[in-house]
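Data card: per-record layout.
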Amino acid sequence: MLTRRVLLSAPLAALPFAARAESRFPSFVESLRAEALHAGISPATIEAAFARVSLNPKILELDRHQPEFTLTWAQYKARVIPSTRIANGRAAYARESNRLSPISATYRCDPRIVVGIWGLESDFGAKTGNYHVVESLANLAYDGRREGYFRSEILNALRILDAGDISPDAMTGSWAGAMGQPQFMPSSYLHYAVDADGDGRRDIWTNRADVFGSIANYLGKSGWRVGEPWVQPIRVPENLVATGRDIKKTLGDWQALGVRRIDGTPFSRSDVIGAVVMPDGAGGEAFMTYANFHAIRRYNPSDFYALAVGLLGNAVA
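The structure for this 317-residue chain is written out next.
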C-alpha cells in the first residue's frame, strides 16, 4: 500500500514513461467518447465499443518498429506470390467462380483481380487479424504521430457499429485497424463496402459475397475498365531507358522501340496505351502496365503490390 500511495502522489512527470502513458490513457479515451457523442453516435454504441479498450503496448510496439528494410522486386515477388499461393488462388477461384462472376459483373471489374487482392490482403480469408479495431485505433491515436487520422477512423468505426453491420467484439482486424478479409480501414468500408447478397448487412469479415462485392466495388469506383488488360510480362531491349508507369505510349510505339511480349512475339494490338515498368531496373523483369494497373494502385499505391496482384490474377484462371 505504501508504494501505491507514493506512486499516486508523485508528480506525473516523475513517473516512468509506461506509467505516465497508462495514467493518461483513460482521460484520452474519455475525450474520444465525448467526441463520438458530439458526432451523433449513440451512447449504447459508445459504451459497447469502448468497454474493452485499454492501453495495448504491443500495438504501439508494432507501429513504432515496423521493418525498414527494402526488398527488391524479386524478393517481394517470391515472398507474396509463392507457388503455394498461386495454387491456393486457383483452387479459390474455381471454388468461388459461381459467386465471383456475377458479383464482378455487377460492380464492373475482373473477378481474377478480386481474387488477387483477396489473396494478398488476407491469404484468401485465412489471415484477417485478431485485434479489436476500436482498441487498435484508440492506441494509435493516443500515440500522437497521426492522431487526427486515427481519431477520424475511430468515428468511422463507431458509425459502422451504430449501423449494426457488426458487433464490437466481432469487429476485428490488423493492429493498424484494417478490417476483415479485404483489410479495409473504416473510412474505406463506409465508401466501398456493399451488401452483395442482400441480407441487410455489409459483412466483410465472414460473408464471402460481401467480401468479393466490396473489393469489386472498390475497383469499379477506382476506374477499372472492363475487358481491358492490367499487366503482362514483356521483353525489352538493353538500351531502353525511358520507362516508368507515367511514360505512356501506344503498343505500336513500344514495338518500334523493340519491346515485345515475353515470348518474343509482337503485341496483338498496336493502339492500346501502356507503360513499361521495370521494378528492379535494367536487367530485371519488365512489365507492360495498362490503365487497370492504376486502378489496382488505388487500393494500395505500391507498384510492387499492383504488379503482384496483377500477376496473381493472371495465374489464378
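Known properties of this structure: Residues 1-19 have pLDDT under 50 and may be disordered. The CA atoms of residues 25 and 31 lie 10 Å apart.

See the next section for split statistics.
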